[in-house]
Amino acid sequence: MQELNEKIKQFGTVLPGNVLKVDAFLNHQVDPELMLHVGQEFARRFAGEGITKIWTVESSGIAPAVMTGLAMKLPVIFARKHKSLTLNNNMYVADVYSYTKKTTNRISISKKYVAPDDKVLMIDDFLANGQAVEGMLEIADQAGIQVAGAGIVIEKSFQPGGQELRDRGVRVESLARIKSLADNQIEFEED
């Protein structure tokens, strides 16, 4: 997606530890028009797959997931990171380690919103080590449902997550693939 690559070039900042900061348009301040185009692109790439729901992990995946749900006319479920008083124990849960925050969160999805015949598309803002997608895959396994694949806004392909998921047979569609962040320069994969 050229539009996304241009936003990354214009607003992306490389931080120590191979962190790409894109809070100007993706995961703090959100560019709604760009997110709409992201959702439309995921809808195009996963058309005809029989998907029934979109899944993501709060909070940075919500904007692209909602726009994908809008484009596909499907409900969006976000796995919660914090236990809520309104959620009971009838939950699927998994532990997810955050690369950028260096913390582990327990994510949960209510069994109420998961049907045995669901086929889900997982959406996330970043893919580095694949922990968020792994957590959602664990929940899908617990629920015994099918996974169509993972739609990733930005993949850091120099980290192992994307290849590990692909090696497991998970379809991964990344809209921008970062080859390197060395010397504070953003280098994209050639497609």
Strand and helix layout:
Blueprint: H1 2-11, E1 13-15, E2 19-21, H2 32-45, E3 53-57, H3 62-72, E4 76-79, E5 91-98, E6 103-110, E7 119-127, H4 131-143, E8 146-156, H5 161-167, E9 172-180, E10 187-188
Parallel strand pairs: 3-4, 3-7, 7-8, 8-9
Antiparallel strand pairs: 1-2, 5-6, 9-10
Helix pairs in contact: 2-3
What does this structure look like?
The protein contains five helices and ten strands. By secondary structure, the protein is of the alpha/beta class. The protein has a single domain (2-188), classed as Rossmann fold (3-Layer(aba) Sandwich). 40% of the residues are buried. Strands 4-3-7-8-9-10 form a six-stranded mixed β-sheet, sandwiched between helices.
CATH architecture: 3-Layer(aba) Sandwich
Please report the number of helical segments: 5
* CATH domain fold name: Rossmann fold
Number of domains: 1
Protein name: Xanthine phosphoribosyltransferase
Keywords: Cytoplasm, Glycosyltransferase, Purine salvage, Transferase
Pathway: Purine metabolism; XMP biosynthesis via salvage pathway; XMP from xanthine: step 1/1
Enzyme class: transferase
Summarize the structure.
This protein has 191 residues and is an alpha/beta fold. The protein contains five helices and ten strands; from the N terminus they run H-E-E-H-E-H-E-E-E-E-H-E-H-E-E.
Key attributes of the depicted protein:
single chain; 191 residues; alpha/beta; Rossmann fold; 6-stranded mixed sheet; two-stranded antiparallel sheet; 5 helices; 29% helix; 32% strand; globular; xanthine phosphoribosyltransferase activity
